[in-house]
Amino acid sequence: MATYSELMAQAQSLMAQAEQARKDELSNVIADIKAKMKQYGISVADLGGASAGGRKAAKSKSGAAPKYRGPNGELWAGGPGRKPQWVRDALAAGKDLDAYKI
């Protein structure tokens, strides 16, 4: 029979594998959704996203008014602290955050 520490190591390994599978599948799902949105001319506003008309101004998670909108409609106030993953990805790709200003 396996020991507790062996089982915990297996569990952590499986969780890491599951997270990687989720990320891989998520990339494919997002690409598929973007392709269908383009094909049918659907915008984030059509889906009831933050840019939909007639709604109150959107707020970021911090509660501050957002200054940036990510490629998938994510909002970020641009304050101190950890940057969202989409911001880190954009910066790593050499993109200028001014392109995402609202």
UniProtKB/TrEMBL annotation:
State if Cell wall biogenesis/degradation is listed as a keyword: no
Keyword DNA-binding in annotation: yes
Q: Which portions of the sequence form the region Disordered?
A: 49-81
Q: Which domain of life is it from?
A: Bacteria
Keywords from UniProt, A to Z, are: Coiled coil, Cytoplasm, DNA-binding
State the compartments where it is located.
Cytoplasm, Nucleoid
Under InterPro entries, the record lists:
H-NS_C_dom (IPR027444), H-NS_C_dom_sf (IPR037150)
Q: Specify the protein name.
A: H-NS histone family protein
Q: Which organism is the protein's source? A: Hydrogenophaga borbori
